[in-house]
Amino acid sequence: MPEAIEVIFEKYQRKPDQLIPILQNVQRELGYIAPESVRRISRYLRISENQIFGVSSFYAQFRFTAPGRHSIKVCLGTACHVKGGATLLEMLERELGIGCGESTPDRRFDLERVACLGCCALSPVVQIDADIYSRMTVNKLSELLKQYE
Amino acid sequence: MNKLKKKISTAKKKWEAIENNKEPIIYIGAASCGRAAGALELISETEKYIKENNITAKIIQVGCIGPCYLEPLVDIKMPGQPRVSYSNVNVRLLSNVLKSHFLEGVPFSKAAIGNFGGTSFKDIPPFYDLPMLKPQVRIVLRNCGLIDPEDIDQYLAKDGYQGLMNALKMSPDDVIGIVRQAGIRGRGGAGFPTFKKWTACRNAPGEQKYLICNADEGDPGAFMNRSLIESDPHAVLEGMLIAGYSIGASKGIVYIRAEYPLAIERLITAIKQMKEYGLLGKNILGSAFSFDIAIKEGAGAFVCGEETALIASIEGKRGMPRSRPPFPAISGLFGCPTIINNVETLGTLPNILRNGAEWYNRFGKEGNRGTKTFSLVGKIRRTGLIEVQLGTTLREIIFDIGGGVQKPFKAIQTGGPSGGCLSEEFLDLAVDYESLASAGSIMGSGGLIIMDEDTCVVDVAKYFLDFTQKESCGKCIPCRVGTRHMVEILERITHGEGSPEDLLTLRTLGDTIKKGSLCGLGQTAPNPVLTTLRYFRNEYLEHIRDGRCRAIVCKDLIEYRVIKEKCTGCQSCVKACPTGAISGPRSEPHNLDKTKCIKCRSCYEVCRFEAIAGDAIVIRTAEKRS
Q1: How far does A125 lie from chain B, in Å, by closest CA?
Q2: Which end of chain A is more exposed for a tag (fewer CB within 10 A), N or C?
Q3: Are residues A118 and B33, on separate chains, in Cβ contact within 8 Å?
Q4: Where are the alpha helices (DSSP H) in A11-114?
């Protein structure tokens, strides 16, 4: 990890306003914001670890635990809510045995809720990795999970 | 400027070649919405077909033309024929369509929904005569779905950057004058006159000024900005140049949600092309105006749609609003004068500068000039992205454009989570900033969510409040603590444990939050509850008094049942039930143990779509408690 993070730093100036782009890049490369990453960013930008944690915990995008091999995002935007998105989330929580923001013990899946994926006309939608699945039902989703190992 | 003129004439020639194409062109709508519906698979299938059959044809990925319920859309333009549009295309239909065009030389009329050549085909209506499109006035969306968003030449051929050229010939004050005359108001929601903001910033002292494009479309249920950027990114970027020139800014920033990866990708491509064409950088088109555009990805915070919170976020801080004045136009990003305009406002500017203020004044009504885009979602027949003149009534939008509701109409939520929920009596309300405000709602950025009798308004109000409560930044106590209390009360009511006094408490809390919050989030957060209390009081009372949810949504107030007469005992639901609540031997009506049932809907769906009986499992309101 140390090398990876140093490579990321090279792309950014040593200015406090670069904090969020750096955090985003670290998460993209390493999957999450580890305590060690926070320490290194703190040293690089010369701002306190507290401040970095304060900023990163404010935004929904950042996670502090290692993600699973596949990321499931259940859309709970208005249109998806009206069409039953919450039922899909409950079903996933039950089948995977985890809550939002957690990963399964075998690290196969991690689960998240998002406010809106912007595909409201095709609701309810669920995103697994980069693919968005539209007009989902409890049973279709349960079949779909089998495709991911 | 001469260099660009040369580029334009080449671009126009290129466009003519597309219009009078010698080889077939296949257009596939591949914005995020099209992709979710399977557009990428269609692209690879088409490529395969072309290769296997040795056909020379061109595939163009276009953006979103608006009617999302028809996605994925595939259009085919054969040489000498107008473009023909096909909807809800799957792999099988695609192969029929391709065969019909390429082998038989005629459109697959059975499945064609429209053509772009007027009345050239007897059995295929003109696309813009479709009921969803006919009442629309497309200014901002004029290129969406028609041009390749990744090709600057196509934008140029459609008179792109003409508005910028006109602007650069004038003084910045004259440009602001035109914007003033056009009467355009901020499309982000508040409706503040654009020229007023600009004038304040232009007159503010300071060497460095910033222009920020607010593409942090956080409203759940709204996707106008995503669609526009994905389908016509140059329109927004040209608008940024015009705005930057007017206020005297040299740096532009697009603040866009990280959840919109395709939109970001298209912006990056577009910015690169602009640099190649001399539309960014020093002395743009030979003028004294220099401008650069950077992209900042938002990190997921609804409150960052608020101007001062957005600025804090760009500065690398927690996205919390601060009190105003000073307004950002005087002291914004890094303390410099800053203008923040919404994507749609910016996307409209090139049209105003190209066609003039008088032309723009032809649309909309006094005080509410021009058009507005809306995303039409929820329980409506024709969902999608639309653009109408301000002053159009809700009835026209829902019934003429949206095709109405399948079940009886109940309510419409305008303005997203900060807006209000309006009942049937408001259907003839004109959609403009003032009328919506007078009904207790807001224009907002343009999400319209339609609800029918299957939607529980108490549940929806709880949903919105739960959203704003989670997104509250926590700075103002009324917003932080008040919204939480409101959610708790609403939860009690949806569990059937509310008391009549709760309604009064909700109103008092709502009024206090509105008065005691610093930013737009808190000031509007109680709107969904306050409006539903006003227009749907009876439904609240039913939940409280009778423990009844008439829409059959609130889980604690409903139950699942097997209709013995209908059940064929096919065992599908027994297999689907995760808790073993359903039992019974094959071919005999099944039993559903209510104490084990978690109301997960699996059996209901299975029975509807896969079982032999079809509708033996019903969800209904629970029997009245004693």
Answers
A1: 9
A2: C
A3: yes
A4: 19-30, 35-45, 49-58, 78-82, 85-96
Confidence category of residue A1, pLDDT binned at 50, 70, 90:
low
Beta bridge partners of B85: B75, B114
Q: Report CB contact under 8 Å: B69, A78.
A: no
Strand pairing class (B251-257; B292-298): parallel
| Of residues B98, B91, B95, the one with CA closest to residue B25 | B98
Closest chain A residue to B319, measured at CA: A58
Cis omega (within 30 of 0) on the bond before A124? yes
* Tokens read off for A87: 């039922």
CB contact under 8 A, A118 and B37: no
Residue whose structure tokens are 């009078």? B20
| Spatial separation of the C-alpha atoms in residues B75 and B417, rounded to whole Å | 36
Q: Which of A87, A115, A122 is facing B71, going by the closest CB pair?
A: A122
- Write out pLDDT tens, residues B386-442: 999 999 999 999 999 999 999 999 999 999 888 999 999 999 999 999 999 999 999
Check if A116 contacts B (Cβ < 8 Å): yes
| A82/chain B closest Cα distance in angstroms | 7
Peptide bond into B325 cis (omega under 30): yes
**Residue B624 pLDDT exceeds 60:** no
**Which residues make Cβ contacts (< 8 Å) with residue B5, sequence separation at least 6?**
none
Give me the residue from A23, A58, A132 closest to B35, CB to CB. Answer: A132
**Averaged over B436-456, what is the pLDDT?**
91
Is B586 at the interface with chain A, CB within 8 A? Answer: no
| Rg of chain B in Å (alpha carbons) | 27
Interface with B, mutate which of A100, A114, A119, A127 (most B CBs under 10 A): A119
For chain A, what is the total number of helices (H) and then of strands (E)?
Answer: 7, 4
- Residue to mutate among B40, B41, B259, B475, with most A CBs inside 10 A, is B259
- Residue in the block written with tokens 């206090």: B512
Amino acid in position B448: L
What's the predicted TM-score (pTM) here?
A: 0.92
Residues of A in contact with B602 (CB under 8 A): 91, 138-139, 142
Distances (CA, A) of B178 to B170, B172, B241, B350: 10, 10, 15, 12
Interface ipTM = 0.89
B382 Cβ partners below 8 Å, 6+ apart? B67, B69, B131, B132, B376, B401, B402, B403
Secondary structure of B412-465 as H, E, C letters: EEECHHHCEEEEHHHCCCECCHHHHHHCCCCCCCCEEEEEECCCCHHHHHHHHH
